Amino acid sequence: MLLSFGTSDINFYFSFQDPYCYLAWVLLQNGLKNFDSIKVKPINIGLNPTNNNFSFRESWDGLRWLRLAKEAKLAGITINKPLEYVSENLTARCIPNYGVGGAEYYISSIFKAVFTDNIDISIAHSLRYFLQSEGNDSEVLIDASNDSKTLNDYLAQVDLWGKKRIRTIPTIEVGDERLAGFITQKQLDDLLRSLTDRL
What predicted TM-score, i.e. pTM, was given to this entire model? Predict the structure, then answer.
């Protein structure tokens, strides 16, 4: 997968706290393994700011969780329920600072922190230690957290909620086509096939 922070073939709107986003991220990585020329722009808009605690709890509803866990298992993905909702402000601000070469690994590491290792991603020092253990440059985290521009950029992304037809996450946008919410490998493969047919 080739990440981009400018023009892109695919826009991926997500939150680090949403398990459906984690599933979609891994499926997207798997689906793009053989397409080095397709550019993906990751856009962290967080959970819906009008009801983020509700959205967080609802993601773990019994039947929804069973369906998600089943799809994750089919894809070989380990996923555990986080203990509580925490802010993802700090982690989201860092994404562009890792650059196109390091951002994919960084995003994967943060999803692992939330859904595998139960790390509180809102606490700078615990997040820094975790990133170091994963082989990420934790200085990028410190630099981004001290830069007011990263906060302004993140708040501008959060403001995309309800705009540009973004009403649920994850949303994978390819031109005028989009997948949103619970995304399966088959749905994603069909979307990627339509994209590659146009390239």
Answer: 0.91
